[in-house]
Amino acid sequence: MSRRPLTYQVIEDELRDTMARAENLTEQFAVAVSEKSEAEAAYKVAIAKARLQARYELASSGAKATDQTTADTATVATEEEFKTYLISEAKYESLKQALYSARERGDQIRSLMASYRDVAG
Fold this sequence. Notes:
Blueprint: H1 8-61, H2 67-77, H3 79-120
Helix pairs in contact: 1-2, 1-3
């Protein structure tokens, strides 16, 4: 693969592409923030309900409702909500990092543009 000669136009095109990518990532990140919040809220509500249900069922059956038993029972009962939450959190973190990288790349290209202008005079 051959590289194009470095010209101001090439640098400008790269900056335009990078900024378009950053804008797209910003939109995706906004959606991911919302999805993560909803998944986290759903998981927290589900785990709280499952803990209460586990305590009630264990107490009703005469079994000792230890904190660990209650937590384990609630974790099993909320497996899907927890998976959804973890996936949304991973997506959020991934997009957050990609957006940061795109912004950093934009800063690097702007610096390169300034250096190119200085050299070109």
